[in-house]
Amino acid sequence: MPSGNGARIHLSLLLTALMLMPTMLALASFSHEQEEMGTESSPLRSSDKNLGAYLGQLGVPQTNDVSHGWNVEGNIGEAALYHRTAAYVPIQDWTAKTGERIVSGWHTLGHDYPIPSDWKSELSDLGIDCQTFFAPQGFHCNVPELPPETLMEHGVIGIFRLDPTDKLAPDILPIMKFGLDSSAIKEGDSFILRVLIAGPGLDHISLEKEVEVRDFFSERFVTIVANQDEVNWLVNQNYVEWVEPVYPDELMNGEATEIMNVNWVRDGTNMGGALNGLTGDGVIIGVMDSGLDVAGACTSLSSCNSVNSGTIHPAFAGRLAYADSFWGSPARESWTECQAGDDGPNDQHGHGTHVAGSVLGDGSNSEEGYDGTGSAPGAQLYMQSVACWHYTSLKG
What domain count does the chain have? Predict the structure, then answer.
């Protein structure tokens, strides 16, 4: 489940907009201006009780259940969730506060900070399956009907259950509740959504009965089709951790370069002079991956220009400083078989070329209307190919 300060900023911005902009027009305007409004110091971030109330106006109310770790008096420790910092109900107070004498199902279990390296294994010996880590001191765990006293004997200082509001990506709320324009993928009135389930090997029968399931992958991820009512059902399921929209795949790295402010520092007017833009000029960048395009082995800028003249992808032409194959690397699982022959520094997969282009491609041969320029288009490339295509072909 995603977590972090940047995520809390986005939620703070959403909630601030809901309070200050009562009309749909204003809310739509907010969707385009959220990066310029508010800061991490917003009074609505973290454990503020208003969080649940305002999310409730959007269709998924806070349950007001003390077991969900809202920052009520007497709770201890913290767990950094996407929208808030939750507080653990002290394990010795669990029964008194919740009326539950047995802990069963998915709960976040907290330990005194720092967590011992063997604590997860200790819990596993009790039959407790722990998966997602919630910094700084807990795991999301499936507890097999144990009394709080047993958990306390094994280092658990407090527990809480995820609230339904903890499981909603912030971009779900405006597009599903208010119908704001979005590039999220829709089918009719429903959205394609990605769901993170709490642990692998869970029984998916109930999930498949309630929503249309398109795909299970990587043991914990599910792609579904769902409307707002079905999302409401999803986030109230004990084994669901996170629900977010799916967006069309994009081939460009423009969003990453904007986040890194790459385009800004390339502009010399921002750097104190027209000639001061940072493009990577004079820097040699090393990339270790599956290889580079049709590159031949070379050991200097001049030899690379000679060996690869007219053949290398134009985005790297004249800036390849070194290319070689590390086919005998002991880091590879089957490196002894790789020693049977050198398959060169060229790229038979495509990943290495893509990565090198993201790092320092100069945008040559970009499709019309798109800019495929990498982050440092003036830098030179030191390419180390560690793919073992020779061994792969022998096996195949």
Answer: 3
253 within 8 A of 374, measured Cβ to Cβ = yes
Per-residue pLDDT tens digits for 19-60: 333 323 323 332 333 333 232 322 223 334 455 555 555 455
pLDDT tier for residue 337 given thresholds of 50, 70 and 90: low
Say if residues 150 and 109 touch (Cβ distance below 8 Å).
no
| 208 and 290 within one domain | no
Split at pLDDT 50, 70, 90, the class of 225 is very high
How far apart are the C-alpha atoms of 162 and 142, rounded to whole Å?
Answer: 12
Res 251: pLDDT = 66
CA distance linking residue 284 with residue 13, whole number of Å? 40
| Percentage of the residues of the chain whose pLDDT score is greater than 70 | 75
As a 3-state breakdown, the chain gives helix, strand, coil percent values, each rounded to 5, of 30, 20, 45
Parent domain of 281: 254-395
Question: How many angstroms separate the CA atoms of 167 and 183, rounded?
Answer: 21
Q: Are 195 and 172 in contact (CB under 8 A)?
A: no
Distance CA 349, CA 223 (A): 27
Task: Tell me the one-letter amino acid at 360.
Answer: L
Cα Rg of the chain, angstroms: 26
Q: CA-CA distance, 27 to 297, in Å (whole number)? A: 57
pTM over cut 0.70: no
Give the pair of three-digit tokens for residue 105: 């199902």
Structural domain includes residue 46: yes
| Side-chain-facing half-sphere of 34: CA atoms under 13 Å | 22
> Using CA atoms in the order 288, 292, 297, 299, what is the torsion angle rounded to 10 degrees?
-60
